[in-house]
Design goal:
5 strands; alpha/beta; 133 residues; Glutaredoxin
Length: 133
């Protein structure tokens, strides 16, 4: 939103697991999915998990900022303004839809469009074990 380009990989490599959340302020299913991830993020954010939101917006970032504040998305949120980086096309996402991708530290996609419960289960199996060792 500040006009800087950020490589998602530079964030991904810092965490054991990253949920890449491609959303938009005007996409109700995207918002519902993102909201469902809030408790998971809160629980695992200090255990090797993060979320990177990328909002697909047109003309400006006002609606995105309003949605982030309204719904309490505390994670890093980046802006894909006017499809400048063709992120939706790169991830083969239909025009009006969003998508989520659970990535490991190496940037490998380990789950496509997982539900909140599926993410919680994967993180519980992987990260809860690490925190008890």
């Amino acid at each position: 939103m500040k006009g800087e380009e950020i490589a998602i990989s530079s964030i991904v490599e810092e965490f054991d697991y990253t949920l890449l959340d491609l959303w938009a302020s005007w996409c109700s299913p995207c918002i519902q999915n993102s909201k469902a991830m809030i408790p998971i993020y809160d629980y695992y954010k200090d255990k090797g998990f993060t979320i990177i939101g990328v909002a697909r917006e047109y003309s400006d970032s006002k609606a995105m900022v309003n949605a982030i504040n309204k719904y309490g998305f505390k994670w890093v949120n980046l802006l894909e303004l006017n499809d400048e980086n063709n992120i939706w096309r790169r991830y083969k996402i239909p025009s009006g839809a969003g998508g989520t991708f659970l990535l490991n530290r190496n940037g490998e996609i380990i789950s496509i469009n997982p539900t909140a419960e599926e993410v919680r289960k994967i993180l519980a199996e992987e990260l809860d074990q690490l925190s008890t060792e």
